[in-house]
Amino acid sequence: MAASLGLLAFLAAAGYALDRAFVDVASQLQRDRLRSYASAYAGDIEFDRGGNLIPPYTQPDERFDRPGSGLYAEVVLPGGGWSSESTRGPQLPEAELLEGGAEKFEGPLPITRADGTYGEVLRYGKGFVWDLEQRPEAEFPYTIYIMEDAGTLPQQVRVFRAALWGYLGIAGLVLLLVQALVLRWSLLPLRRVVAELKRVQAGQANRMSELHPRELEPLTESINALVESERQNLEHQRNTMADLAHSLKTPLAVLRTRLESDATEAELREEVATQVQRMNELVGYQLGRAASTGHALFAAPVEIEPHAEQIVRGLEKIYADKGAVCEFEIDPAARFHGEPGDLQELLGNLLENAFKWAHSRVLLTAEVGECAPRRPGLVLAVDDDGPGIPPERIAHVLQRGVRGDERVQGHGIGLSIVQDIVRGYRGELEVGASPELGGARFLVRLPPGL
């Protein structure tokens, strides 16, 4: 609407300007035309030796020969005058004698036509001096008047205005139509964005497409970033709840195993206190992990063996029917530079997976990795003597929610948690065959700090 109103206002202003320009030019042309007629008569008029005017043989315009044509010529002399044939009939206003060289444009002046009606004329007059035989004492003045019907200019203006506003009206309609088409075409990408956004809101699409004009790319990219962020947040919350449930599974299994065993009341109390404390630590860790991502860059070094011993004691109780034992080969100088909860999750999931698939032996190895000025790296390896993992199934087993054997109880998210933690520390996880025990080997390499 604003563009249409602006266009109409522009056309109206342009029409008004053209109208005023035409009126001014037409008025000036009329003055020039009357002046040229007067000059033509001045060149053709002659006087005899007695000072009598000799009428011109030809007229500058044929209308001067038609009575009442609307174009009149008159010559005023000191003792009389002359007028064209067109002055017969109408009563023209009286004319005065002007001084030589003087000009006068006046009007509109009233006249009475031959039919008795009234009209108006515009009159131009110019004074001349006639020098008879080069005798100064014989000089006499005379004035030439040219008159034209005052309705001539308004009629021309009416014709011009009719044509002007007619053409401007047609041009305005055409321009409005073109403008509507251009606006519809130029706003088409916005309508596509709205349509795609509705599809995203309805769940029919996951994100906005990338086929948009460069002016809309920041908008669509921001919408995609927002959608992706919300999706990641939702996925992160789901993973956090699944990770918490998976972390609490081991302490609960230990408690169930101890309750079914022949342990004394004192042993049960001690075990319950130990596992409750661990569950509290797990809940606090997972809540803290859900509130923030990543890890502390300047965390204090954490010893590996105490945490490993605590986890292995619980797992040996759970898998006591297997008689599985875990051996340690831990370098005293090896340290985990990160959150203690991350170390517990890392060791807990790797060792639990190894105990689940081992026949009788599990091996935990910890070595100092690549050194750096600030802190060294760490290499952790967990081996078992189980059936191992075929190379073609390694990528499948590492997916969240996938278990190596659907017949074995579990949630299939332990190794996914390990990957998340290793990725958070910019480390690498390698899965292959154990060269010592013959089963599976999970190798974690954490880079050094600079």
From TrEMBL:
This is histidine kinase. It catalyses: ATP + protein L-histidine = ADP + protein N-phospho-L-histidine. The lineage of its organism: Bacteria, Pseudomonadati, Pseudomonadota, Gammaproteobacteria, Lysobacterales. Signal peptide: none annotated. The chain crosses the membrane at residues 164-183. InterPro entries: HAMP_dom, HATPase_C_sf, HATPase_dom, His_kinase_dom, HisK_dim/P_dom, HisK_dim/P_sf, PhoQ/CarS-like_HATPase, Sig_transdc_His_kin-like_C. Residues 184-235 form the HAMP domain. It comes from Luteimonas granuli. Its main location: membrane. Residues 243-450 form the Histidine kinase domain. One of its GO terms (molecular function) is phosphorelay sensor kinase activity. Pfam families: HATPase_c (PF02518). Its EC number is 2.7.13.3.
